[in-house]
Amino acid sequence: MRAAVILIAVALGASESATDALHARDAQIRAALPPSGEEVTPEARHRVERIITKAIDLRGMVEAAMAKKWHQTTEAQHKRLVAAFEQRFRQMSGSDFGTYRSTKIEYQPEVEVGEGRVNVPTRVVVKGEPTEITYTMRHDPAGWHIVDIVVDGVSTVANYRASFARIISKEGVEGLIRRLQRNPPSRKS
Fold it and tell me: Which is nearest to 146 in space by CA: 46, 67, 66, 55?
């Protein structure tokens, strides 16, 4: 009986679309946030940051942003780069919960882009201002993961690639790790 339940759960997870995964992530984030007007506790902030980053292939993003330099670094550096990037990504993603509470998201049809990836175009409206955000997602045994986020036509990975290349050329990979480990400016929620 238990094996049948596991097989059904796996089958349901496999049939979930990338859009469904984004809907579920959005619902989890909204459920983890306190009601509007209440202060976001450190525990709630940590929960939301964890939900946001769980859906993202952070190692894949760092590898894509590093391009050829990734293969010129050691596995120990890979681990430190990904850990620093995750810390920075969590802090930046969880920096403005107030606007997230009132955000409206319109999901548009998925577009297959090859190599097992799909784009999920969305229109996000914050305080009446629309922003086009496309999530490039890849499915693996653990589910759907975001591998790039394109905001108004600008790729997050491409931005990181340019920034990382500039820092590495001046300060090396260790300099990049140090910069990623620095705390970004905090904003109130």
Answer: 55
User: HSE (CB half, 13 Å, CA atoms) of 13?
Assistant: 13
For residue range 111-140, what is the model confidence (pLDDT) as tens digits?
A: 999 888 999 999 999 888 899 999 999 998
Q: Which CATH superfamily includes the segment(s) 2-181?
A: Tgt2/MlaC (3.10.450.710)
User: Considering the chain, what percentage of its residues have pLDDT values greater than 90?
Assistant: 56
Among candidates 143, 135, 147, 140, which has minimal Cα distance to 60?
Answer: 147
Write out 42-62 in H/E/C secondary structure: HHHHHHHHHHHHHCECHHHHH
CA angle 142–147–152, rounded 5-degree value: 140
